Amino acid sequence: GAGVTIIDGNSLDRVFHIGDGVQVVIRNLTIVNGLAVDDGFPGSTAFDRTASGGAILVSRGSLELDGVVLIENQAIGAEGDRGRDGRRAFGGAVAVYDGSLTVRDSRIENSLLKGGSGGQGREGQHGTGGSPDGENGEDGGQGGDALGGAIYGNNSDIVVENSSLSSNTVI
């Protein structure tokens, strides 16, 4: 059951990525410590893409969670480089793109979703050749969006039945 069978992502990566056309049913399982820092696509890095789905990412697939507990999963957007915006983060526990999700008799707790901080602005320059006028600095980047503390869906069908979503944090 959910308290007996536990998959621990050990904050190394998200635990499951469900792809195009795949239908998955997960029953009586606990998933803890998943960590998403990218969008799950080959070759993407935290600095290139949005962080999606701390425990589970569904891309054009179908997922049913039945009697599942998702605890302390995270999606963390990367900080922006100098003058650049921070990266976005979607779905602290689960992110679904162009797919479907059914959550039944399950719990999603203590997920963390954090958009990346904007990068610092460039420093101004001193005047040269005896000129008192220098260059102004540049603005820093904006912080990245963070949407869906527990679940995020984009162009997706999401159903939650007899389940609890609690203590999920969006920063």
Strand-helix topology:
Elements: E1 6-8, E2 16-18, E3 23-27, E4 30-32, E5 35-36, E6 51-52, E7 56-59, E8 62-66, E9 69-71, E10 74-76, E11 89-90, E12 94-97, E13 100-104, E14 107-109, E15 112-114, E16 146-147, E17 151-154, E18 157-161, E19 164-166, E20 169-170
Descriptive key words:
single chain; 171 residues; mainly beta; five-stranded parallel beta sheet; four-stranded parallel beta sheet; 0% helix; 39% strand
Structure, explained:
It is elongated and about 75 Å long. 0% of the residues lie in helices and 39% in strands. It has 171 residues and is mainly beta. It has no helices and 20 strands. The mean pLDDT is 89. It starts with 5 loop residues before the first strand and ends with a strand. The strands form 5 sheets. A 5-stranded parallel β-sheet has the order 1-4-9-14-19, with no helix packed on it.
What sort of overall outline do the alpha carbons produce when their principal axes are compared?
elongated
H-E string = EEEEEEEEEEEEEEEEEEEE
Count all strands and give the number. 20
| Residues in helix, % | under 10%
Q: Report how far the terminal alpha carbons are from each other.
A: 32 Å
**Would you tell me the overall average pLDDT?**
89
